């Protein structure tokens, strides 16, 4: 198991928190297409599950 803290030049530097590293991963340009696809899928599912989906039905 890796150490909880890393040392560098005589000072103790704490590891970034889980939330900070997760936000950095979502904001990374490498993951932009995956995050966009998941977001659009979630918006589509939300729309189809709502009452607004009735506008898609033929008259």
Automatic annotation (TrEMBL):
Alphabetized InterPro entries for the sequence: Tom6
Record keywords: Membrane, Transmembrane, Transmembrane helix
GO biological process: protein import into mitochondrial matrix
Segments traversing the membrane: 34-53
A Pfam family reported for this protein in Swiss-Prot or TrEMBL: Tom6
Any one cellular-component term (Gene Ontology): mitochondrial outer membrane translocase complex
Protein name, entry field: TOM core complex subunit Tom6
Organism of provenance: Clathrospora elynae
Taxonomic lineage of the native organism: Eukaryota, Fungi, Dikarya, Ascomycota, Pezizomycotina
């Amino acid at each position: 198991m890796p150490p909880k803290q890393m040392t560098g030049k005589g000072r103790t530097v704490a590891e970034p928190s889980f939330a900070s590293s997760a936000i950095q991963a979502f904001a990374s340009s490498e993951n932009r297409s995956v995050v966009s696809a998941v977001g659009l899928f979630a918006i589509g599912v939300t729309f189809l599950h709502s009452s607004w989906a009735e506008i898609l039905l033929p008259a």
